[in-house]
Fold each of these.
Amino acid sequence: MQPVLINYLAIVVAAIASMIIGFIWYGPLFGKTWMQLSGITQEKIDAAKAKGMTKTYIIAFVGSLVMSNVLAHSLVFAAAFYKVSGMPAGLMSGFWNWLGFVATVTLGAVLWEGKPWKLWVLTNGYYLVSLLVMGVILALWM
């Protein structure tokens, strides 16, 4: 069996895609709902912007790079184990990583921190869409 190589450019592109999805998700699509459910006011956002958001975006991008890299490695294993490739492999990897690691871990915010279920759904919707898109990008560029 041929070894599958990780495409590091695809990892960067997938991380950028995740950031773009987040910008749209938490901006024009669900920004007001997210603010309301999170208890974030426009004043808090304005104060954060006044301090400068560069460091925040850099840290978020590094997190997206790590997630993309781990998903790429997971995709290699999934492709070898299930003998699938392309879009189905990307969607499968994205979904199972979301279900196993994101959806389950973020339950704590509802169960222990008292956050509303609607916020959990909104947040997990973003992560699911993001991981699916990242998985497809990574799978198509393998």
Amino acid sequence: MASVASTYARAFADVVLGAHLDANRAIGGLRRISGLLTESVDLRRVWENPAVPAEQKRKLLDAIVLQDGIERHVRNLVAVLIDHRRMHFLEQITRQLEKELDARLGLAEAQITSARELGDPEKRTLEAQIEKVTGKKVRAHFGLDATLLGGAVVRVGSTIYDGSVKGQLEKIREAISS
């Protein structure tokens, strides 16, 4: 039911942007609650059990929110999900919310894989180059792959920019074989 997750994510994105909330903090709060659901079978049973009164479920939510310092707007979204028996969609809603906010804020998610660990100046330079190419602010995630031999491979959405030595060698091999 991707449409359920999309509907809640779009609506909450409206709240986050309309109330000028910190998007990262809101997503972090949702991740925290989602993580607690994953870790605790008992919590999941209580929140998904129709026999437990909604008021008790919300009291439990309020205790978690107070303990973890989660924003009121996030609490309200989770309370709505509890009331409408949609807690099993929380993880999907959180992922969809990230995508929705990224799209609205003009952010691009970039997966950068390099042959070696990059220093902070190299990371910033690479991020700036990706921002220039995409025309969007970039949220980069870095990984390592020694098989690249050198250089880096960047994935932004479905687009791949291959600046690795391995990629260059494969291109040469293809050119020679054809």
Amino acid sequence: MTQPLRITVLTGTNRPGSRTRRVCQRLLARYEDIDSVDAQLLDLAELPPELFSPSAYAEKPASFARFSDTILASDGLHIVSPEYNGGMPGVLKLFIDHLPFPQSFERRPVAFVGVAAGRFAALRPIEQLQAVFGYRNAHIYPPRVFIAEAYKTLDEHGEPTDERLAGQLDAQVTGFVDFVGRLRA
């Protein structure tokens, strides 16, 4: 019997109550509807405070192991990032910088969703993330989803108020499962 694909949905922020987290929950629910997938949420709001110490670069805190182990055990990563000041959140870059090199992203499939209050829909942070993950030799899933003006295009549960956007998110989930499955085979 084939093992289910392990997909990790990663919040790109540690901001409490964020729309990003709500979009992650929506994606997670869609993955859970697919029998061949074992999906989980990795929430940067749960990062251990010790990770923010400069000494963490030399020696990773033991409390960070569950985060790095989750990434290393994943067949694919689905990253949802907001745009903060024209770029990716600092906590997301810090998280990436603390993961083991090169095995964390080497040949690992990754998909991206951008969430922003503005009309450019987090294009800049997703392009920054594509550059970082490309540098780390990840397999980048080409269809990206950009959620502009999230304060009015998402309801309080992270559900799109627009059918077109809902369809894009759903198509990204099913397409990414196929992409990950083909790469794993």
Amino acid sequence: MLFRISAFWARIELGAAALLAVTVTLLILLNVLTRNIGSALYWVDELAIYAMAWMTFLGASAALHHRNSVAITLLPDAVSPGARFVMRKIVDIVVLAFALCMLWFCWRWFMPLGLARSGFDVMAFQGSTFNFIYAEPTLTLGLPKYLFWSVMWLFALGATLHSLAHLSGAPTAPKDAT
């Protein structure tokens, strides 16, 4: 059950990452076009950077589900399948620990309870916590940066889900070739 939820979430992440890859390409082409005609749109650069960051985090989370992350396999390839299984579980535990730390850091950074306690009044929140995350705008888009930083929550939640699914004994993909 958990593995199916993880697989479904990974499909959503990959679909969103693919859409964002197309968006980055179109934004760069728009940038090239507008600069060539002498009427550059400066916000396009910033939006392309944020779209690429979102694409990267969503794709990285989905890669954890599919076990397609970059890895050095010299040692796992040299050991028995049983030892390889143990090593894979150790890696899953490390990924889970990292994902849980990311969730904790996001919780500390975004301080959702502090914002709720201040009645979602950003000025009161800033005054009581000295946390200015909700007030900082992007340079050219003029949108709050926390909207773009929220991908950190999605990555941490996805990485937690995927690592828990692997630790639950769910099927692993792809199968070992040995």
